[in-house]
């Protein structure tokens, strides 16, 4: 049986179409006609021997084979881009990039970002700060950070990019869940103020006419997880990095979604920060795809 070599250009169009939610938009991004992108998708399906997309209402959704292909396509494209950057890396100026990110991503996302960037660009020094949202944004404003991955708090920066939108969820202990039905006030485990997620939790409870009390306050995410696991109260986070000892609960007031943003300082090194931003975006898309499949049955 002859080996099949997938066309990276075709895979790039396929990934762009899925991420943009439209192959017509993908055609615009790739500077090609819609018919050319459709022909590429047909070629990919012929090579794989499986349909990648199926109709759902007026749109298209991934088939099971398409989901598998999407995951591999992202990995292949990331490796291809890393190889090209590694070979051409001497063209980038040497420098020092200071990157900040939320604690939610410290263990799950950071290793992939560090590994890929330092392998491709060993001439750059990469310093990373894992901290809370306001600390990261303050560091960006003061010129102490060049690139920041943080929750959207309504701030406007000259250079910003939406990375995704995530649901806020009530989180409780699996082994010692809080019986909220028998309480006059909901015990809340939260970060010290100011905190976007704490504010969202309090607003949701107050709008529903429910009382709340601060059961535990922490300056670290690990402290939040430990207190919730011990049954001291409930907290509000996104599903990212949720420990196995905790669970989502659906019987408390509805919460809003929150956007995840990538901010860059205006004074940051253009080429180095741009390449790091690409790697962060690729790693985040792959990570969120895995989270959605495991947490929400996708």
UniProtKB/TrEMBL annotation:
The keyword Transmembrane helix does not apply. Pfam families: HTH_1, LysR_substrate. Residues 6-63 form the HTH lysR-type domain. The keyword Protein biosynthesis does not apply. Coiled coil: none annotated. GO terms for molecular function: DNA binding; DNA-binding transcription factor activity. Keywords: DNA-binding, Transcription, Transcription regulation. Belongs to the LysR transcriptional regulatory family. This is LysR family transcriptional regulator. It comes from Aquitalea palustris.
């Amino acid at each position: 049986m002859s080996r099949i070599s997938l066309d990276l250009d075709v895979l790039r169009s396929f990934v762009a179409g899925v991420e943009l939610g439209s192959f017509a938009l993908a055609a615009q991004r790739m500077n090609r006609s819609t018919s050319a992108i459709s022909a590429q998708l047909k070629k990919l399906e012929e090579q794989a021997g499986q349909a990648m997309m199926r109709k759902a209402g007026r749109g298209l959704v991934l088939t099971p084979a398409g989901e598998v292909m999407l995951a591999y396509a992202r990995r292949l494209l990331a490796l291809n881009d890393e190889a090209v950057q590694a070979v051409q890396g001497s063209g980038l100026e040497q420098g020092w990039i200071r990157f900040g990110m939320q604690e939610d991503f410290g263990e799950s996302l950071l290793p992939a970002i560090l590994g890929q960037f330092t392998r491709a660009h060993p001439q750059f020094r990469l310093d990373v700060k894992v901290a809370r949202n306001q600390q990261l944004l303050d560091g960006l404003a003061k010129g102490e950070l060049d690139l920041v991955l943080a929750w959207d708090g309504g701030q406007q920066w000259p250079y910003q990019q939406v990375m995704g939108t995530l649901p806020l969820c009530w989180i409780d202990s699996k082994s010692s869940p809080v019986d909220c039905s028998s309480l006059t006030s909901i015990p809340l485990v939260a970060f010290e103020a100011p905190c976007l997620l704490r504010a969202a939790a309090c607003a949701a409870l107050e709008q529903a006419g429910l009382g709340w009390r601060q059961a535990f306050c922490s300056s670290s995410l690990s402290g939040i997880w430990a207190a919730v696991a011990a049954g001291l109260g409930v907290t509000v986070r996104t599903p990212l990095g949720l420990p196995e000892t905790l669970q989502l609960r659906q019987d408390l007031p509805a919460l809003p979604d929150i956007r995840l943003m990538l901010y860059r300082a205006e004074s940051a090194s253009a080429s180095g920060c741009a390449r790091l931003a690409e790697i962060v975006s690729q790693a985040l898309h792959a990570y969120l795809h895995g989270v959605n499949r495991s947490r929400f049955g996708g």
